[in-house]
Amino acid sequence: MAALAASTAAITLPATPAEAQVRRGKVVSVQTPYRGYVRGSRVERGPGYRSVDRGVRTRSGRGAYSSTDASWGPGYYNRDTTRQTRSGYGHSVSRDANWGDGRYQGGRTVTTNAGNSFGRSTVVTGNGDGTANYDYNRTRRDGSTVSHSGTVGPRP
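The structure corresponding to this sequence follows.
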């Protein structure tokens, strides 16, 4: 009997805490004689990641949708988001950052449904003597670019 209880506990419990995760979902439907909509959401979380989806759709077929996926850990963070609006316009946003060993690299890029992209990126590298080199680039919505680079030192 004790062996059966032990084997059942091993099956129902995650092998390690890293495998533990939370999943949630919800759907709401509101209908009247003249109008109506359906709204839904889904959330999934675990160690080092999160995923969220939300959406709404009207009886006439219009709707909006949002999806976000994020992951993180020692020395990195990434997040991707997609949004679509009722009128069909939308965009995707990608953010990322990496750091460690005296170096940081991060950025953000937005891509519209029309295919236009704009964003920014930053790289900072420590030189080991109290100074750091940096490089910053930005692309605007109109396609023009701005860049800055240089070296910063310790405060006097």
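Confidence is low (pLDDT under 50) at residues 1-19.
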